[in-house]
Amino acid sequence: MDNIAFIGGGNMASCIIGGMLANGFQAQQICVSNPGQEKRERLQQAYGIATTADNHAAVANADIVVMAVKPQIMGTVVKELAASIGPETAVVSIAAGIQLADFQLWLGSSQAIVRVMPNTPSMVRCGAAGLFANNLVSEEQKRSIETMFNAVGISCWVDNEALIDAVTAVSGSGPAYFFLMMETMQRIGEELGLSEQTARELTIQTALGAAKMASAGDLDTTQLRKQVTSPGGTTEAAIATFQSLDIEDSFRQAMQSVVKRAREMASEFSS
């Protein structure tokens, strides 16, 4: 049974812990270090886990250390902790823009390190996470870390670190694309005469239903789109308009801008 320390007790750490406890992990396995007393007390009361303000105490006996602090302070926190993290411990980062090379510089080249890009639907246990490990992470450690993130959704390993940027473009930033689409559909629904509540409820339920149909696995999204698009019908008129506006290229440019910004952040946070 792995001992797991979280350095940082923010929203993402909290939701991962909640999912873990709902899926077979034990409270005594988990310790969270956070400087704010109020947040520590909330975590302790909500989950029955150990909390501390001492990062060194949190990692002392940890098999897995999850670094859940903001990218801007990650380097300072990791360097200060380096001597307290055991050589057999796997270090997991859920921060955007911090590359393995930086962690290896801070922790040493012999440390097992995993980069994870989770997303905000993890907070309702419908998350999607991409993971990449250096070659020092054991298969057993991979399974343990995968299980942690599967507890709040799904997780997928990628073959090289650069693909974490692609994960960011698809699922890390992806919820905001859907929120923007839903926001737009609701607003135009109101323009067409629906009440705010009706437009909102129809939009949300439609998004939920479409996602459930896509996840059922019987048909791919292209087949599903064609299935609902009757020749000469209303949906075909809408799809034709989207295609005339080259919606695919708009998405391509938007998602490529995510990758570009992720690489810029990597340079900004690099040691």
Please state roughly what percent of the residues sit in beta strands, choosing from under 5%, 5-15%, 15-25%, 25-35%, 35-45% or over 45%: 5-15%
Q: State the fourth-level CATH superfamily of the largest domain.
A: NAD(P)-binding Rossmann-like Domain
Q: Which fold name is given in CATH as the topology of the largest domain?
A: Rossmann fold
Radius of gyration: 21 Å
Shape: elongated
Question: How many structural domains are formed by the residues?
Answer: 2
Mean pLDDT: 95
Named CATH architecture of the largest domain: 3-Layer(aba) Sandwich
Order of helices and strands: EHEHEHEHEHEEHEHHHHHH
Under CATH at level 1, the class of the largest domain stands as: Alpha Beta
Structural class: alpha/beta
Report how far the terminal alpha carbons are from each other.
34 Å
Helix content: 40-55%
Q: Based on DSSP secondary structure assignment, what is the total number of beta strands?
A: 8
SS summary, helix count: 12
Low-confidence blocks of residues: none
Could you give the order of strands across the largest sheet?
3-2-1-4-5-6-7-8
Sheet with the most strands, sense and barrel status: 8 strands, mixed
Characterize the structure shown:
The two termini are 34 Å apart. Strand 4 (64-67), helix 4 and strand 5 form a beta-alpha-beta unit. The model has no long low-confidence stretch (mean pLDDT 95). The radius of gyration is 21 Å and the shape is elongated. The chain has helices spanning 11-22, 37-47, 55-59, 71-81, 100-107, 139-150, 163-172, 174-191, 196-215, 221-228, 234-244, 247-269, and strands at residues 4-7, 30-33, 50-52, 64-67, 90-93, 112-117, 127-133, 153-157. Helices cover 55% and strands 14% of the residues. It folds into 2 domains: 4-164, 3-Layer(aba) Sandwich (Rossmann fold); 174-260, ProC C-terminal domain-like fold (Orthogonal Bundle). By secondary structure, the protein is α/β, with parallel strands linked by helices.
